Amino acid sequence: WYWAVLVGVLHSAIGVCVQHDASHGAVSPPSSVNALVSYSVDWIGNNRWLWMQQHIIGHHPHCNIAGKDP
């Protein structure tokens, strides 16, 4: 069970990192490819639109400010 949990956590981390880069337009020049790849977070149990709201609206304006950055 230890290895199953570890593999699950690592796959989630990779998925979130790829999705994060795609949501910022850094995976591919065509925006349609970035949009498609950013939906990969839905495959690991999250939601692209909710993540974008939290990350873009919640995190970016208050990046690394204690008490304000979610």
Secondary structure layout:
Elements lengths: L1 H22 L7 H8 L9 H12 L11
Helix pairs in contact: 1-2
Estimate the mean pLDDT confidence. Answer: 85
Gyration radius, rounded = 14 Å
Shape descriptor reads flat
The tally of beta strands, per DSSP, is 0
General description of the model:
Helix content is 60%, strand content 0%. The chain is mainly alpha-helical. The termini are far apart. The mean pLDDT is 85.
Keywords:
about 70 residues, mainly alpha
Give a summary of the structure in a few sentences.
This protein has 70 residues and is an all-alpha fold. Helices cover 60% and strands 0% of the residues.
